[in-house]
Amino acid sequence: MPKKSFQELINSPGMPVLVDFYADWCGPCKAMNPVIEQVASQYNGKLKVVKVNIDNNHSAASQFRVQGVPTFILFSKGQQVWRQSGAMPAQQLTQVIQQYV
């Protein structure tokens, strides 16, 4: 299966896409992994979760001006509708997602 472009990923028809920009060396990113997994399973079939390693995907990180990690960007119909940098509680993340699913 060919690798999809970042643009194809965020234009996912029918469901919002949460992009998690992270780095392997980032402590708060590792702390957010269980939260992201919980959100992904909670909204399975209603939300697509895409993890982007900024060290391997410089173009996507610079395209969205990611300055720090973790940075979370929520896309709906290909448009950025929400963005936050830094770790956050699962409840805060689900409150945002709930508005778009």
TrEMBL record:
<keyword id="KW-0249">Electron transport</keyword>
<feature type="domain" description="Thioredoxin">
    <location>
        <begin position="1"/>
        <end position="101"/>
    </location>
</feature>
<comment type="similarity">
    <text>Belongs to the thioredoxin family.</text>
</comment>
<dbReference type="Pfam" id="PF00085">
    <property type="entry name" value="Thioredoxin"/>
</dbReference>
<dbReference type="InterPro" id="IPR036249">
    <property type="entry name" value="Thioredoxin-like_sf"/>
</dbReference>
<keyword id="KW-1015">Disulfide bond</keyword>
<keyword id="KW-0676">Redox-active center</keyword>
<dbReference type="InterPro" id="IPR005746">
    <property type="entry name" value="Thioredoxin"/>
</dbReference>
<dbReference type="InterPro" id="IPR017937">
    <property type="entry name" value="Thioredoxin_CS"/>
</dbReference>
<keyword id="KW-0813">Transport</keyword>
<protein>
    <recommendedName>
        <fullName>Thioredoxin</fullName>
    </recommendedName>
</protein>
<dbReference type="InterPro" id="IPR013766">
    <property type="entry name" value="Thioredoxin_domain"/>
</dbReference>
